[in-house]
Specification:
Layout (H helix, E strand, L loop, with lengths): L7 H13 L5 E7 L10 H5 L4 E7 L6 H13 L3 E4 L11 H8 L1 H9 L7 E6 L6 H9 L17 E4 L4 E5 L11 H10 L9 H15 L1 H8 L9 H8 L11 H13 L14
Helix pairs in contact: 7-8, 8-9, 8-11, 10-11
Length: 280
């Protein structure tokens, strides 16, 4: 599969981020806990040089818990502050205030020495499309401040949100990078819904994910679809039969089966699954 998606608004959004980076003290980067490395935009490290850095492993409730712990250690070893969160439920967000203080300790102490007291930390919230930035902001703020949606590209422009006297957040649009050099990255991002579904061959993508799950999480497939995981190439047909996805004449509707399969995977109905590990 060859997956590339970089709509024009992302170029504009990246330019705006370059301008706004001068105004901020801290970058809060959301990654999808199921694909923590693939869901990191490599441009962010360059943009964020010299800034405090926090990584939120979002949707951690959908990811393998043992893998979550390994990714926490991986990012900490790289010098990031890291928190496992579930933006929908708010799990993990209570830790954020303390971690913001730790990540910006030098800045806060510098302000204090200059006699500047109670100046809020200004943080830019960044991440790829559909990683849950706006949901995180709304959950942390306790009210609807940012527009949300379950598809990529809902946030179109930057928006400042003052949460309290100590923290201001800048919500930014989800941006990818112009080209996926490694197509396995594109495939993982397509699986979690960070690439526009309309440009994808969903049946082919479903077969890729089924093949992976048969190898790593066969029990999840057997439990959900009573699947014979010894034959991953027949997996989509098995799902179509199990979910009664039929066309006129009794033919299997592979497109419908693929859609239902991705709905199950993205919604956590296949269990807790992580698609990549640090050592890989």
């Amino acid at each position: 599969m060859n997956i590339q998606w970089y709509p024009g608004h992302m170029t504009k959004a990246k330019r705006a981020m370059k301008e706004d980076i001068k105004l901020i003290d801290l970058i809060i980067e959301l990654v999808d806990a199921r694909v923590p490395l693939s869901s990191r935009n490599p441009d962010i490290d360059e943009l964020g040089k010299g800034k405090g850095r926090i990584i939120l492993l979002n949707k951690s409730d959908l990811a393998d818990e043992a893998a979550n712990d390994r990714w926490m250690e991986y990012f900490k070893a790289k010098g990031f502050h890291v928190i496992k969160v579930n933006s929908r439920s708010g799990a993990g967000l209570r830790q954020l205030g303390q971690v913001v203080s730790e990540a910006c300790r030098e800045k806060i102490e510098r302000d204090r020495r200059r006699g500047i007291l109670n100046r809020p930390v200004r943080a830019m919230v960044v991440g790829i499309p559909n990683v849950g930035k706006s949901t995180f902001i709304n959950s942390y703020a306790g009210k609807a401040c940012a527009k949300t949606g379950n598809k990529p590209g809902v946030t179109k422009g930057n928006q400042w949100i003052r949460l309290n006297k100590t923290l201001e957040l800048l919500d930014t649009p989800g941006i990818l990078w112009p080209r996926f050099e490694d197509q396995s990255v594109g495939i993982r991002l397509a699986c979690i819904g960070s690439v526009n579904d309309d440009i994808l061959d969903r049946t082919e993508l479903a077969l890729e994910l089924i093949k992976f799950l048969c190898e790593r999480y066969p029990e999840n497939l057997r439990e959900r679809y009573e699947m014979d995981t010894e034959h991953p190439e027949e997996g989509l047909a098995q799902i179509a039969r199990f979910r009664a996805c039929l066309l006129k004449g009794g033919e299997l509707d592979y497109e419908k089966a693929a859609k239902l399969f991705f709905d199950d995977f993205r919604g956590g109905r296949l269990g807790r699954i992580t698609l990549e590990l640090p050592e890989e």
